[in-house]
Amino acid sequence: MGKPISDWNPHDLEIHPAGPVLKGYESGTVPIAVLPGYVPRLHDQVLTEAVQDASAGRSRMVILVGSSSTGKTRACWESVQPLTHKGWGLWHPFDPTRAQAALDDLRRVEPCTVVWLNEAQHYLGEPRVGEQLAAAVHRLLTDSGRGPVLILGTLWPEYADQYTVLPPAGSPDPHSRVREILAGRTLTIPDTFDQDALRATAALAQGGDELLADALTRTSTDGRVTQDLAGAPELLRRYEQGTPAVRAVMEAAMDARRLGVGLHLPQAFLIDAAIDYLSDWDYNQLAEGWAETAFADLARPVHGKQAPLRRTSTRPERRPPGSPTPATPPVAQSAGPAFRLADYLEQHGRSTRRAKCPPASFWHAAYTHLSNPDELSSLARAAESRFRLQWAYHLRHQVADSGRLDALVELARMRAKAGDQGGAEALALQAAEAGNASALFFLARMRADAGDRDGAEAFYRKAADAGKVFALVVLALMREEGGDRDGAEAFALQAAEAGRPDALVDVALMRESDGDRDGAEALVLQAAEAGDTNGLVELARVREEVGDEDGAEALYRRAADAGDSRALTDLAWMRAKAGDRAEAEALVRQAADEGSPRALFDQALMREEAGQRGEAEAFALQAAEAGNVDALIDLASMREEDGDRDGAEALALRAADAGHLETLVELALMRAKAGDQARAEALALRAAGAGNARALFLLALMREETGDRAEAKALALQAADIGVDWLHEQQDLGGWWPYGLDPDGTPTKPW
């Protein structure tokens, strides 16, 4: 697989060219793009250690996380150079598509290979095969007979967050395997060079590196050296100073990418989408051939051979005669040329256009010109989250017409939410008859909601037979609630054998509540043997709540022995409540040593309860830096309850300064519940000013309560334009706009 590392041109591995160098070459030859000198930074040490481990025979995986053009790919390239002379090869899967190439051939990777997953979202985030790829990567890393291998990749922060943040309880979890494979394997790269790196850059520049010398004339104060080298400032200038037609096309492209359209944007789509981005004046000034002129302008390269919008094409799939049909057939491509937006401008659009809903021409162009069902599904979700219900419905119809049964289920859900139960059931039945297991589950829930227990069970059984293991969990709970304990246990065991031992836990907790302690404990032990220690912890908490501390401790200990660090922190709290703070601290430290994500959180709250406020804040801030802001929220709540309102607000503001605006929103909710509307509104305004949709919606509700309905609607509209998944479920929005909103924000008429 792959080829020797020394045979690769780094630019073929998607390292941004820094600029052409003509010196030393005859006139008329193709300019050769060269790499500027490399400045090692702190993250390079971690990469070096990973390479050393791989060289010593231990497979490793590192995914660099950072914003566009911050040097992620270059860092990966520099790190593998020591392997060049040790016979290692490098494999970059990309043909016919990145995800398909990786899925097809990952099993063929040989020892001493670097697997190059640049822009890993195109692999791990691919909607249809990303989870399969994560599982295949895990197998490659853990199969000692296939190593050593080194897997290197890059991700933007928003993708890393999307894949690693746990979904809300009860919501789908589309990235569970990806989250597992990324855990402990990501490394954040800073956006800018620090002072040490800038001094090293200056030394290379003084030594004759012209590219770095030129970059330092613009970046010596802000440290954005890599972005400058990649041509970001010129790209931004071309956008900001472009003609109205150029800006319209680019904004349509930015919106398409941020809402889920793929890398290759059809020209016909962009031309039609751009129309409503123009003012009436600019539209009337358009000359014949305006589109050709705009695309020609956008194709002109900037520093580093990057173009704001460059023409691209999808490689045709080439397979030997007689090859088996791929599991995931290729998606039909739109006719006509396609274009790719420059990475830096794409990210710029994600940031600056986050609060803007695309105009009507965008949605109409998508409906008319796009054919990829995954892209149309993403746009339908984006439309619905922005309360543009009519366009969401029509886009989903396009997906359903392409043969995607999951779109029929989504249409059924929208019909049911609108009160059309008959239409919803008809669509779900259509999908179910075609073999869609989710449709069976949906029908089962509809029957259950209507009180038809037998009908619900019949559909749950069909869903289970079709592979929906969670249906077995529901059947177990239904039987337990109905008093059929043998039936409940049989279904729970079936679910456990199919990979859902949590069914045993659910039944166990119901038995505990009925007083059958032995039966409950037997079931959670079965679940633990099947790999789910959650039941031991949950049952221990129940025992602790009723005062059975000995029974709780025994269960906590068993869970901890099985590797569940949550049991240690729960046991620590039990010790703290009993006054044994020394033992509590020791248990939390043990949990921290074992990598518990809750350990910092618990240490913060324990120090707060002990009156050690400075240490509590330090632990809470560490937890926030690691991605868990719950400790800051809880500390703020504790100080609020103690009457220290200034202290609570100071914590919330520190969290907000670190980018965690939700802490401000939570504190605002606390103030509102306490009747302090003025301070609640001040906090919500601060979060809303930074673009937090939840804060905007909270402000809307506050304005509604004071009778300012017009301002309430305006704030709710701002929140809707940003788009939040829970927003369309708010009853207030349904009351204001029963049929949704048009793209321009006016209420949609009945449709």
Automatic annotation (TrEMBL):
This is Sel1 repeat family protein. Residues 302-333 are annotated as: Disordered. SUPFAM superfamilies: HCP-like (SSF81901). InterPro entries: Sel1_AlgK (IPR050767), TPR-like_helical_dom_sf (IPR011990).
